[in-house]
Amino acid sequence: MNVTVTQAEQTEQTPENETAEPAIFGRLVAIDPLDFDPDGGTEKLVIVDPYNHRKKREEGDTTEPDAALIASVEEVGVQQAIILRPQEGERDGQLGIVIGQRRSLAAYRVASAAAQEGREYRKIPAIIRDDLRGVDDEALTVSMVENLHRRQASAQDDVDAAEQLALLVKAKKVPKARKRSLAAAIGRTEEELDAAHKVAQMDAETLEDLRDEEIEFDWVELGDYDEVKDVSNAQVTLMRAKAKDEQEGNTKRGAWKTAMQELRAKKARTERIETLKAELAEKKATTVHWVWNWSYSAARPLEELVSAIGNPMSEQGHSETCEGHAATIDPDAAEVVWLCVDWKKHGHRIAGAAQGDDSDDEPDEEEAAKAEAVREERRRVKVNNLAWRTARAGREAHIADMCKDKGEAPADVKDLIMRTLLVSDGHYVHYVGSQEHGAMLAKFLGDERLTRHPKDVISSLIKKTASRRYWWVLFAHVAGYFEAEHMKDDAWRGEPHYHHGPSVRGRIRPATAEWISFLKHHGYGVTEVEAETVATAEQEAEAEAERRAEQERQREEREAARAAAKEAEEDEDDDEDEEGDESGSGAEFDDTSEDEDEPEGDEDGSAEGDQEEADEE
């Protein structure tokens, strides 16, 4: 086994006017290619390092040198030095290839052929990195950096190596700064490093298909995509969400997370539908395809039918008495809908049709329109309630992430807290001891004790919270209030009318729209139903502003009219006063007055009184 040292170790003295190169450059040596064992035995000096980025595979093996590389080594030898590091444990005394596996294998094959034919062959230039001995995470990082921009390294190589690196980081409890440095060295983030184990479970075909289609998902996104890849349009949906986040500069992946939440819900609905189909098949129930508008079908859901004498139709009763009993599955709600396949033939009537109508026809146009409106509203409520509930998980996860922030809260977060706690828009803010609010705090702050003993935990929570984090604890309190009070399942429909029942709805609460808009500003990706709710609230606010403006205009017109009337009346009184003054000044100098002491107005008053009596008669 020959290792020829061709350069003095860098620890030797250097001239005074030169600076010693750092030890990271290692020792330059020449390696005999036949001292390399591609299979990793213990008899030869050089093996492939266990933490080399590239891995041997049955399919798509990227460690194999191609014909062009072998020809190049045959012609000019290995021109770029490989990197080795001393091994430990049972392989102590051997050198592992960190960088240059393909070059070494090409040189090994050229040397093997030359040795058999009795020809000379070239040695391999190599750098021995003693500083990498026992430092597995650094060795793996160096290997990944080398291969990162080489097309020959497969996507599976990347994620396998990343998973190894993630496990090493976790096992060694590497400090966060070093973890960040290792991730940055391979062009990834800490978040991606944590997600590497998920990506490592992906099949190679999916990874290579994405690479061939030049779809650039990072490791976090790859792990998410693998979870929902079987959902229809998943790839397109996620690509659009990623583009939206990039366009809006949303570094918190708001649109992506929302898209994933909806795709997960869609996947769950699909799985639920398959389960329902299996259950119906086991019951040997007759099934028909779902119809979006039953008006154009001979079949009708039982909830739209009544018996010949007007009684509601139940699933059990109909199954026992009608041959047309069947089931279908609502794809949006993922629930079984029971129906009659031919309601006319089996003597049923449409709910709302006039009793005693022998024609068995549909209700008249007006009644049919009303019935259709009721059905559409019922369906809209069902679908939107489901969408609103689906959005909750993603929204609460986003709030919990916000509450993990260890820095100073932004000004608008503080404003929201102060406005809510001090003013609260006239609404009562739940005390932290309430069960629902305690559950919200526990979820947002990650402390389950708040669910069971909120009062006992508050003091310890304050003690262990850094002062700069106070605002975020208060934010969790306020977030719990908004979620509990203003984001209930039916909040998208507007505020229920407590005098006329919950089916009568008023305007959407301003706090509901305010809360959704606030979270959107902080990186949350709003769902379709949330966006519609905010838009409706804005339209209602505009209509209310116009109504108030109209009321104010009418009030101003009435006040102007009253002011004008009053002014006209005052002008008339002034004219009468002027006439009275002229008449009074003439009587003042009248010497013919019979009695100066008797008020002159008595006679006038008496005459006026007589005239009023006459008028009354």
UniProtKB/TrEMBL annotation:
<feature type="compositionally biased region" description="Acidic residues">
    <location>
        <begin position="357"/>
        <end position="367"/>
    </location>
</feature>
<feature type="compositionally biased region" description="Acidic residues">
    <location>
        <begin position="568"/>
        <end position="617"/>
    </location>
</feature>
<dbReference type="InterPro" id="IPR036086">
    <property type="entry name" value="ParB/Sulfiredoxin_sf"/>
</dbReference>
<feature type="compositionally biased region" description="Basic and acidic residues">
    <location>
        <begin position="544"/>
        <end position="567"/>
    </location>
</feature>
<feature type="domain" description="ParB-like N-terminal">
    <location>
        <begin position="46"/>
        <end position="148"/>
    </location>
</feature>
<dbReference type="InterPro" id="IPR003115">
    <property type="entry name" value="ParB_N"/>
</dbReference>
<protein>
    <submittedName>
        <fullName>ParB family chromosome partitioning protein</fullName>
    </submittedName>
</protein>
<feature type="region of interest" description="Disordered">
    <location>
        <begin position="533"/>
        <end position="617"/>
    </location>
</feature>
<feature type="region of interest" description="Disordered">
    <location>
        <begin position="351"/>
        <end position="373"/>
    </location>
</feature>
<feature type="region of interest" description="Disordered">
    <location>
        <begin position="1"/>
        <end position="20"/>
    </location>
</feature>
